[in-house]
Amino acid sequence: MQATDVIIIGAGAAGLMCAFNTALRGRRVLLLDHANKPGKKILMSGGGRCNFTNLYVEPGNFLSHNPHFCKSALARYTQWDFLELVGKHGVPWHEKKLGQLFCDNKSSDILDMLLAECDQAGVELRLDTRIDAIEASGHGYSLSTSAGPLACESLVIATGGLSIPTLGASGFGHQVARQFGHHIWPTRAGLVPFTLTDPQLKNLCTELSGTSVDCYAQCGGQGFRENLLFTHRGLSGPAMLQVSSYWNPGDTLEIDLLPGRDALQWLQEAQAQRPAIELKTLLAEVFTRKMAGLLCECWFESRPLKQYNPPQLDEIARQLAAWQLTPAGTEGYRTAEVTLGGVDTREVSSKTMESQKSPGLYFIGEVLDVSGHLGGFNFQWAWASAYAAAQYA
Ligand code: FDA
Asked: Which range in 64-73, 163-172, 196-205 is most confidently predicted, on average pLDDT?
């Protein structure tokens, strides 16, 4: 039986961050993962450039049944702390938009940085390791693994959520939490594209596949001004991913395709100034010609503006500024960036991330019921929760 101070299961964003920070306290750390490579999601993230944090991190950027839980960890390890680490390693970065910080080069810069820190701090990393069973034993935990029996004082669960099983995701962390008496909030895919079944809408999306438009999308009392992307399968792009985290089956989305302008006033002015212009020609001043034509085919008859009476103009404005649609579903965990729900944070210390059910057991990262908005917030949660646990594990 190999005994060590701390075992961390999951060599993703949170596990790697926790590993070297724990080892820097002089603890012997063994980091295990069932995958053949560490940090696969880091490599895939941000379209290959890893949106590793955000300049404007606020507790309001996170969804949880317990919204106060994330505050302490986020305050103790901030985006500026992570930027200092990035700076120490000379990783070049830039702000893309809305405070979102990306690598100039590749996501592997962030993974290499974390691996270098682990190496320097003396973390032992073991990949391709299956964990078969965990038991509380004396003052710690014993594990049966494909690499033989292991024992530790502190056990950190950093196995993430259910999103993208092909990148190593599993429900393992939830299972462990359940085994030690924790409540798990039901999970569902977040930051995920919508699918549609309505034939007319599907046709619109297929025809416009690849087209991106600025919009203000709302669902469940939350709204986001971002781009909407039409795809062959339905609706994607940052605006849709953001609202998907607030969407439940059956909910209707409201999309303003003319954000920042009063649609009715715009139509009325155009009618007064250019009565002979066709509706689709006017719409082509805002959307692509193809989209303007398709919207007219789908929703309104395109006529010269002077031929619409006030209620008809009102209806056109309503359709453009408050397009109501009910998605059939989402693409699910296959493409979701995060998992909503997870280990109930009311049973975990917000200061240390330690289980209140089983001393010496810690949960960090996405396995917990804390999910961020799109824009680097999920990684910031991984870094911050990992750092918190690393001070105590
Ligand atoms: P993470 O999933 O990173 O790591 C979990 C680790 O545990 C994995 O290495 C896995 O193999 C291992 N594991 C799982 N089950 C196990 C078991 N049974 N035994 C042993 N090991 C096990 N966020 C962001 O802020 N900016 C971004 O740009 C992106 N981009 C992005 C793109 C894509 C495609 C996805 C899927 C996700 C993102 N995200 C993101 C979200 C972000 O990647 C995610 O929130 C963090 O990686 C979560 O970190 P964790 O360490 O908690 O889990």
From this structure: 64-73
